[in-house]
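$ run holo --ligand "beta-D-fucofuranose" --emit tokens
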Amino acid sequence: SGGDATAPPADDSSALIVVGFSQVGAESDWRTANTQSMKDTFVEANGYKLIFDDAQQKQENQITAIRNFIQQEVDYIVLAPVTETGWDTVLQEAKDAGIPVIIVDRMIDVSDDSLYTAWVGSDFRKEGDKAAAWIVDNFKDKEVNIVHIQGTIGSSAQIGRTAGLEDAVAKNSNLKIIAQQSGEFTQAKGQEVMESVLKQNDKIDVVYCENDNEAFGVIDALEAAGKTYGKDGDIKIISFDATNAGLTDTLSGKINYNVECNPLHGPRVEKIIKQLEGGQTPDKKAYVDEAAFDANTITQADIDARAY
Ligand code: GYE
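-- output --
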């Protein structure tokens, strides 16, 4: 029925690149910003169809999602893995189906590196080292009792941030971890863990929270217990992510030190896909540059620059 025979039909959805994204869940502000970044990037106007799956922090759900993506013959699988281990079998299935897998945010630990095409994310060990250095620098030789609220056990973010602290404790005899438990990267669990820690420990100098949402829960628990904390208080608080809400609490002095973790990976993943589409080889691993914010030096402009 007329028209230019060489022009593709306007509604040809087969021209879109189909991306299946298996997301960890919605446990934190960081995660919400990460999901939004992916959804904003992989839109039809940019030439993509995004199939999004929220695994509710369960690896078995992520494995099911990946198998569904394989069945749907997506062009790319993007995986934000909840934990590092346990991916060999399902990623072999993706490889056998000829579907490239891009890992984003946390890392995976597989016996065969050809099971994924590329990874982009943060250097979590470096983040942990920065936070631990703040404790070492600010307490000098004084005895420091540290409450350590970990992230999701077995996730790269937890492994790196925990290693940074534990390494500093091993090297500095004045540092002591008096309690260590997972707050699962959520505000509710962070609060619950802190409430129980407060029942058993009298002298606390530092609470090392592995993300902002845990720190918000910890602050609620400290408030309820009538403790003083932050810049002008007895208990110093360390956090990670440096989200808008986290930086707001840093400027107000509730959080002493907040190490940045950047969630805006959508454009970074798109860059990898564009390289692959163009027949290029993307970097196998790419780390994002990140800063850290001290309550003594942070400014309103730092917060205004934060969309998430
Ligand atoms: O720090 C935390 C989230 O893997 C970097 O996961 C991510 C972490 C982030 O739940 O808030």
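-- notes --
The longest helix spans residues 124-139.
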